Amino acid sequence: PSLLYGIYEQDAPDTLLLDVPRLYSLGRLGRLYRWYSFWINIVDALWQSVAIYFVTHMTYIDTDTDMWTFGFLLCAELLMVNSFHLAIEVKQWTIPFFLSLTLSFLAYFVFALTYNLFVGP
């Protein structure tokens, strides 16, 4: 495998795509991504955001959790759910992809902890 491969997707190697240009025809003619695909993605994103919010809200409804903790939990859940969604969709698990997921989690928590050391309540 070449280091030039895409992290998220690669349906065919670049040499094959250059040798057989008709493989681009589905995307070029608009047969791959339809107008309703956009709305399906919007509904999916809305469902995920509503589920994330209400799971967190119902978990901490009668507690003394402050706005900052609640926001941190929402963002952490959002990062986890979106990363899990991405992990389900990806076809090739490469080292750069795995590292990007892992480093995303680490960077978020390191930033949040560092930020709260200086700006916390």
Automatic annotation (TrEMBL):
It comes from the Eukaryota. Residues 1-118 form the P-type ATPase C-terminal domain. Its main location: membrane. Pfam families: PhoLip_ATPase_C. Keywords: Magnesium, Membrane, Metal-binding, Transmembrane, Transmembrane helix. It is a multi-pass membrane protein. The chain crosses the membrane at residues 35-55, 67-88, 95-118. GO terms for molecular function: ATPase-coupled intramembrane lipid transporter activity; metal ion binding. This is P-type ATPase C-terminal domain-containing protein. It comes from Plectus sambesii.
